[in-house]
Each structure stands twice: as structure tokens, then as C-alpha cells.
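Many introductory courses stop at the sequence. We go one step further.
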Amino acid sequence: EKEVLRLNLYRRMLTSYLLVCLIPLLLSLFTTIKLEQNVRDSLLADRDNVSENIQREIDLKLDDAITTASVLASDTMIGQLGTQYAFSRTDSIEQNALIDTLARARVQHQAVNFVFCYFQRSGHIVSDERAYSRGAADLFAKRLEIPYETLMEALQNPSVSYSVQPVTTTGTPYLLVTYNQFTSDYEERLSCVGLLLRIPHNLVQWDEE
């Protein structure tokens, strides 16, 4: 009987000892798990905040680019040149002035890599650097590092006022913002202002069709 009592006492002491040892260990484990969860939640929240900030900045840049393209499209020089089927000597002077206007627009917007205007009737392209005749439009495409067919396909969208579309170059993919100007009866497009933005199109949240 004494042995049984001694054994029970030993078991109780052992159980108490184990509890005394295990409680701090369990508390430490719980604290570690809780801390790990807090760190994980904090990282996820930070990542979401960064994504939201990036998206907000991209949206602002796109809105600014669309507004800039709209303002440029309403420029009187573009309106005048857009009505011509061939550029005269006077038109060439206007063309040079337009190059300066487009260059200023590019400098004022850091996200914009190129600014240009495509004239439907004459086939001329005037960029923020120089002008290109219809037969030299492929040189402009090379300057943008965009295949000529890809560029012309992107510009052939005369049914909408403006558009934002991805354009894959031989280097970094960009976004092309275009703004069209039409005749008063909207039967014919006269010009198309284009802005190439240094924003990879995979960062843009496209609206579902």
C-alpha cells in the first residue's frame, strides 16, 4: 500500500513538474505563432497598400495623358494641318512649330516617352523630335522600336474619341494613348494625337469586356 501511495505521489509530482515546464513552452509557442501571424498580416497589408498606390499612380498618369492628348488634339495647328492632303511651304512652317509644342508636352510629363500626331489625309507624322512624310513613317516606327505594321494598326482606330492600348516594342512594352480629331460631321478622322507612356501594360487593370 505504501508503494502504491509513493507511486501516486511520484506521478503527481511528475505531472506537476511537466505542467510547470510545459506552460511556459506553450505560452512561448503561442506567442511565436501570434507574432508570425501578425508579421504575415502586416506584410500582406503593406503589399496591398503598395499595389493600391502603384495602381493609383498609374491611373493618375493615364488620366493626365488622356487630358494632355485631348488638349493637343484641339490645337489650332493640328486642326489646320489635319485638313490638308499635302503640306505646303506654309504648312511646313506650322509643322516645325508643332514639333516644339509636342516637345514641350513631353518634357512636362515624365511618364511620357514620345508625343506625336498622325495626320490621316496626308499620311504625315509629326513627333516631338521631327516630321515624317507618308513614305518615311517606317522610320518613325523604328525610332519607337515598334514594328511598322503594329504602329499603323494601333493608329487605325478612327471610331472612338480616345483609346488606351498596349503596344509591344522590341524592348519594354508601353501604353499608347491616342486621341482622335474628326470633321464637324464626324464622318472622317483628320488627326490622331499619340502619347507613348513608360508604363508596362501588365501593371494596368484593364476593364472586363
